[in-house]
Design a protein that fits this description.
Elements lengths: L1 H7 L2 E7 L13 E2 L2 E2 H11 L3 E8 L2 H9 L19 H15 L5 E4 L9 H13 L6 E6 L10 E4 L3 E3 L8 E5 L5 E4 L12 E5 L11 H11 L4
Parallel strand pairs: 1-4, 1-5, 6-11
Antiparallel strand pairs: 2-3, 5-10, 6-9, 6-10, 7-8, 7-9, 8-11
């Protein structure tokens, strides 16, 4: 019965890995603990009990090689116009949604997994999918958060009531939470229009150690220190 439930609810892991990253050159394939950064996310997606399909969105030949090395099917390269540095995640997903629908007509939910979150595991993916399904009638999407730190990006702060999140503070949504990348985001495939996060947004809480988001050299240095705790 449990396996049947997992088959019925179709989750697609969407992994964006652009070639020309700006702040850290080729960060998606830089080695962390002897492995390319993207390998952590590829392995987690493969091991997830809930993920039915995996799609890698990239314009990099090196990423394609790594995907094939992990024995994951590579479908096609990202279009040039969607590989520009100014393209937002919303624009990217909107631009590739028809491709996803054509290749995987049965999927219902997109699990966004950014390679910059190497300590997010298959267990985190499964827990977030389980939480999303439990609240499927009310929740429109899910995003992972963690506790605030001293140098956090103000634009990533949201307000929680313990279960749901919103962008503005009020008497019910008081506690500050920090989107950790995000390491995890789940979207209903036909529900995101103007914004990825809208309607009722589930808060998937993650620890500070698991929430590292690698975008600058310091993040890589921090990840190397934290890596020993996950071995």
């Amino acid at each position: 019965m449990f396996k049947r439930l997992l088959r019925f609810n179709e989750f697609l892991a969407y992994i964006p890995a652009r070639k020309n990253s700006i702040r850290v050159k080729n960060k998606n394939i830089l080695r962390l603990g002897g492995k390319p950064l993207i390998s952590y996310t590829l392995k987690a997606a493969k091991k997830s009990k809930y993920v039915n399909y995996i799609y890698i969105s990239t314009d990099s030949k090196e990423v394609k090689k790594l995907v094939k090395k992990e024995k994951i099917k590579f479908y096609n390269f990202r279009k040039k116009k969607l590989s520009e540095s100014k393209i937002t995640m919303h624009e990217l997903l909107s631009g590739e949604l028809n491709i996803l629908k054509n290749k995987f007509p049965k999927f219902k939910y997109i699990v966004l997994l950014q390679p910059t979150s190497p300590f997010r595991t298959e267990h985190d993916i499964d827990k977030s999918c389980k939480l999303f399904l439990k609240n499927i009638r009310k929740a429109n999407c899910l995003v992972s958060t963690t506790i605030l730190n001293k140098s956090c990006d103000e634009s990533k702060i949201m307000y929680s009531n313990g279960k749901y999140l919103q962008f503005k503070k009020n008497r019910n949504f008081k506690k500050k939470r920090l989107r950790n990348g995000p390491a995890l985001m789940i979207l209903k495939r036909d529900k995101f229009k103007k914004n990825l996060l809208s309607g009722k947004i589930l808060d998937f809480k993650m620890s500070k150690k698991k929430s590292i988001d690698i975008n600058i050299k310091k993040d890589f240095d921090d990840a190397k220190k934290i890596l020993k705790f996950f071995k």
